[in-house]
Design goal:
The structure holds two protein chains of two kinds. Chain A is mainly alpha-helical. Chain A has 14 helices and four strands. Chain A has helices at 2-16, 24-50, 68-75, 77-108, 115-123, 130-140, 147-156, 166-194, 198-206, 211-222, 224-240, 242-249, 265-275, 279-307; strands at 53-56, 61-64, 255-256, 259-260. Chain B has 15 helices and no strands. In chain B, helix 4 crosses helix 8, helix 4 (83-114) packs antiparallel against helix 13 and helix 11 packs antiparallel against helix 14. The radius of gyration of chain B is 26 Å and the shape is globular. Classes of the chains: A mainly alpha, B mainly alpha. Chains A and B meet through helix 1, helix 2, helix 4, helix 5 and helix 6 of A and helix 1, helix 4, helix 5, helix 6 and helix 8 of B.
Chain lengths: 312, 292
Amino acid sequence: MLNPGRARRSAATEQNAVFRGAGLPWVFLLPSLLILAVFIYLPALQTLRLAAYRANVILGTEQFVGLANFTELLLSPAYRQVALQTLVFTVLTVSLGLLSALGLAWLASRPIRGAQTYRLLLIYPYALSPAIAGTLWLFLFNPEIGVVNQILGSLFDVRPRWLDTPLLAFGLVTLAAIWKGLAYNIVFYLASIQNLPGDVLEAAEIDGATPAQAFWRVAFPLLTPITFFLVFTNIIAALFDSFALTDILTRGGPYSGNAGATTFLVYQLYQDGFVNFKTGVAAAQAALMLALVAFITWMQFRVGERRVHYGA
Amino acid sequence: MVPEGAARESREHRGQASQGQRRHGRVWVTHLALTTAVLLVSAPLLFALIKATQVSSDVISPKLLPGGAFFQNLSGVWQGANLGRYMLNSTVVAVCVTLGKTVLALLAALAFVYFRFPLKGAAFVVVLLSLMLPTEVLIIALFDLVSQDLKWANTYAAIIVPFLASATGTFLFRQHFLNIPSSLADAARIDGCGPLRYLTRILIPMSWNTIGALAVIQFVYAWDQYIWPLVIMQQDDKQVVQVGLRKLIEVGGQTDWGAVMAGAVITMLPPLIVFTALQKQFSRGFGLTEDK
């Protein structure tokens, strides 16, 4: 299915190439390539170089230390804890986030009255930024004046200190991240569900499939390509977009074990780079994250070619 | 064949009858589940909207009735905490980034689709691979480059220029151009129309849906920027509104939550306006609706 498409596309590419001029295409590409070279690729190389130095951007000092920054990081209990926390946070937000988005998109695609309104109400929180999400949750879960504790206090007489208790703070950040990503995931699931072949689902129902069977045995396999796409975009979002959320909501805290319970990889990088001014160590962290993103991208292509059911 | 068809048909009828009853029972469960979900998902937003309208004594009480103090709350942070300035900065940045990305991506896609040149494949890979390098990963070296070498700290250029190239945009415009019949470009060339004129007179008018869809994504992306402005903008009067929110919370030790909620609500508006204005293009550009 993929190869003929690719062949057709490359034939079309050649067919379309009607204009002449050897220098002209480079003139059109120049602005994009220049920006990419100066602000993406140059900093990427510079990051790899800085990772081998004990450096301070503010003071302008540099001293070559080889792989010392990497060994320091990998042996540091604090960094290991941060990496583990990031892993747990990512797995939880991606799996729970996608499951709830799929469930809600499925319900909102049923032929019921008001489905359009439900869909709209589920989609509009897309306009929320991670920083706004953090701000709202900070107020909601404020121990004294937050509405959650006011309700819990009057009903059960408990007022948890959400942001000072490691496990609660971690759960709260996870929940806020899931909530923030919900609208984005629902948009993609709604579009894919609407494009499902209706006759296949109808046939399943006619043959006596229960709604649960129709969903898990028929619809879910047909939705594998979009689920797969969303798994990867959500992993990237969990790794990077969580920064603004945690910066406003918890500042990486509260402290537990060797590091803050909600300090994730990017937050640690920011702390070391711009608060502690350990530029070399921060660059080494960036290099490790670069390897992580490369690995994730590679997995995406590898798993994508083998496993994904693209339909007929 | 005939009896088989008949059997299937009768089974279909029976199926529909019992299904009808079952479906009726299920419908209100679906409504209940969806209503609960919508309420849960909207709860933080509804709460923010209500609290943004209350006077400060009500804001810290459990009271959940809207008040009439929205503009009072807003004007407090608009001038008192610089929110007006932050909003202006964010608007300038988001509009410039969106426009710049669109123009650069259109030009790049023009080169990739309508020209044959050496190293075309390599150039395309260079553009696409940039997707793998998010700002967060580059931030240490980018800070070094922009503040020390270019001396752009505390300027708009620092948060606009590095983001002007768009791999997503180039890719989407390329896909779109490839779907436009090549005979059109052929005819234009024979009539003596150059590539730039072809772009402005023919391609752009045929691409409004894709342009609109991309503009939504790029505006929201630029509007939501946080970590880069946080590190590169040390002067408050050039700061963007997302980082400004953090400052609203910190103002003077005692947070005025009614005012902060008013600020958060206002911060949400521009992406909502852009999204609403370009909703039709957004759905068509991404094939979310059937009429393309």
